[in-house]
Fold these 2 entries.
Entry 1:
Amino acid sequence: MATPADSEAGAPVFRFRHAVDVRFRDLDAMGHAHHTLPLVYLEEARAEYWRRVAGRAALRDIDYVMAEVTVRFHRRIEWPARLDVGLRVSRLGGKSFEMEFEIRGDDGTLLSSGRTVQVFFDYDAGASGPMPAELRERIERFEGGALD
């Protein structure tokens, strides 16, 4: 789905998009999705990105830990709705990578946006580790010119 972000000057281009339904159980006492839910919607999209783009389909293939999360709330997320989550890797480091995201409603309205920082982690060693070269290649190939 083309979104306003695709045409806004200076706005990031999200080549990866994933649909997520707002569930009735997501509603809080105020009648909109609880403020923690954008992170759940983001996690669903990031898991799909990791399967499809990174080629890591199994739970044991998640070789990073979350280091930082920033969320900006633009509008309330209401039910029922099908959300469009745009996600991109915006920076690749030696041991970490950053992702930017946006969550838009059915009509293209920006609801939430933000960024995350993930650190590659060797669970056997119990320490951070370098980004695998083949993974870097896959992400760079997918993100192309959008990668900073």
Entry 2:
Amino acid sequence: MVTLTERAAEHVLTLMREDPEALALRVAVQGGGCSGLQYALGFDGEPQPGDEVADLHGVKVVVDRFSLPYLSGAEVDFVDGLMGQGFTVNNPNAVASCGCGSSFKAEGDEAEAAVAAGGCNTCSA
């Protein structure tokens, strides 16, 4: 399952207070990005059948069964630095990633990179 740092949980809870329909943080993986897979974070209502659910620092975190193998052991954090601020995913399953960290390739994943050497449209790698 995915973990959530206390700092990330604080930011999620602040954002959830602004959206009364946000009952859970959904962490998922979608096809796309220059490395083949990309992370998706968003708010959701109730969990769907087959979802894994955990309560982490007061945040209900939901992961669908397709995404779970790609995210097992991953940690969602919130960083604030010179290059900007935002949520990041530290994923032990990623064997390669985009320069901006928004997409990754997992071991055994046969997805071809959209841009072999030039990075993606969202970063300058």
